[in-house]
Amino acid sequence: MIAHRWNSRKRATAARRQRGATVVEMALVMPVFLLVMIGVIELAMMYFSNLTMQYAVREGSRYAITGLADADPNASNQQRYQAIIQKIKDSSTGMYAKVSPVITTNNVTYTDSSSYNAAMFGAAGDILVIQIDCYWPLATPLLKPFFTDGKYHFVVATTMLNENYGSN
To answer: Which of 44, 80, 142, 160 is least buried, going by the fewest C-beta atoms within 10 A?
Structure first.
């Protein structure tokens, strides 16, 4: 009977020690695990923003080559260039404003909406090159030191030939 109590006490003490060791191991491993996990999530967001903006530029270009202007939110005075920008915004799933875009079309750069104009996407039969410089702001300080100003810079572009559309 005494031996049985001795063994059960020994087992209880060993179990307490094991639980303490588990807590210490968890305290050592958890910060590293969380840093790696946050880094993976941040990288995934960077790639997602790149792919989303590439899709948006492609959709905007596909719309631009048709010469249509019906996507312009200003229904009373629809402009082709506004419709194309709106198509890019709609296709970017809300990321357009977040990436601080700088649009370049046919080697002319437009830094903000006040510089947009009717000729920026070319005329019928012209080759259209749309390039957008994007800056994705990083959410965590983990990767910020590796990027200029803590922002991931990427460029998305498409090249297409405008169709021979009539004047709109």
So the answer is: 44
